[in-house]
Amino acid sequence: DGKFVMVEGIIPVAGIDGLHATVTGYRHWGDVDLERGYLNAGTPDFSTASPDSRTWGLRARLDWQNAFSWRNADYTPYVDLSYSDSHLDSFTEVGGAFPAFFDDKDEEITELRLGVNGELPLFSDRVRLLGNLEAAHRFDDDGSRTSGQLIGLFSFDLPGTDYDQNWFKAGIGVEGNLGKGKASLMINGTTEGEMPSAWAAFAYQVRF
Known about the structure:
CATH class: Mainly Beta
Helix content: under 10%
Number of helices: 0
CATH architecture: Beta Barrel
Oligomer: single chain
Mean pLDDT: 91
Number of domains: 1
Radius of gyration: 23 Å
Number of strands: 16
Distance between the termini: 31 Å
CATH superfamily: Autotransporter beta-domain
Low-confidence stretches: none
């Protein structure tokens, strides 16, 4: 459960046709329902907690709409820089045979993405072939540590997850006018990173 606020502005860059900047800021706060499972003398058991969490982030992006054309296709290069900071309060679990106390933790993520989107008309301007190529770099090489105490037994301090810092993403899809709006279907794949290795995305947009 929680609340989410986002503010975004799209600003044309003077003097360069089709170049615009997007600046986004957001904040989320709420609580997280956690359940830690383990074996107690061979029997499944679990302890639970609901600590408070807070996240905020900033994103700056430049898109150069239809910057160049090649073989009847229009290409839009972009650069995207994002930063997020997540905080989880300390908490003590309840229930189970071995509840634990966990220290608070912060997770910072900074990512840079460079890519290009392509668009090629099919049959007519009403149907278009879409393509995307992207290279991404994550400046953080590992996550925050997890520390605390198994109540009445011992303390622990575990290293954070090792992150893949560089990866590539590619996508292909189709977009067309549908009713009063515009529908698109994209199939995407990535070499590494935090996203699944392959996924599909469908979108429908209506202008008011």
